[in-house]
Amino acid sequence: MAQIINKTSFGLVFRCSQCKKIHIEFNNINLNFSETDYKRFSDYIYHLDGQYWAELNTNSPYRRKIRIPISATPICLMLTVEELSALRKLLENTSASAEEELIRTFHTTIRLN
Questions:
Q1: Is 20 left (phi over 0), alpha (psi -120 to 50) or beta?
Q2: pTM above 0.70, yes or no
């Protein structure tokens, strides 16, 4: 069963009750994180200065100027300033939503015991 955390026209963030991971579908990209890694990723995206990187990479041959390395892999997300904004909107308040769900689960568990 999937618990939807946030949904926009660009994608979906949900938690899988079986694997306990948080999954992000953003356009044609799928990312799967533990709770800790998800928090790190969303904080990184929130604090990323997209305009700075877009201007710095103006002469890059890539159409999308914002490079986001994915961990210790050779994979990078490539975004425009507008796509970064859309990703932020998708991730917006999801950390708070995840924390609220954990608190609800904790309270339910206490009442059941």
A1: left
A2: yes
- Centre a 10 Å sphere on the Cβ of residue 87 and count the other Cβ atoms it contains: 26
**Higher-confidence position of 42 and 93:** 42
pLDDT in tens, 13-40: 999 999 999 999 999 999 999 999 999 9
Mark out the alpha helices in the chain (DSSP H runs): 35-47, 50-56, 81-91, 94-112
Q: List the chain domain ranges.
A: 2-112
- Could you tell me how many residues make up the chain? 113
C-alpha angle 7-100-13 in degrees, rounded to nearest 5 = 20
Rounded to whole angstroms, the Cα distance separating 64 from 85 reads 13
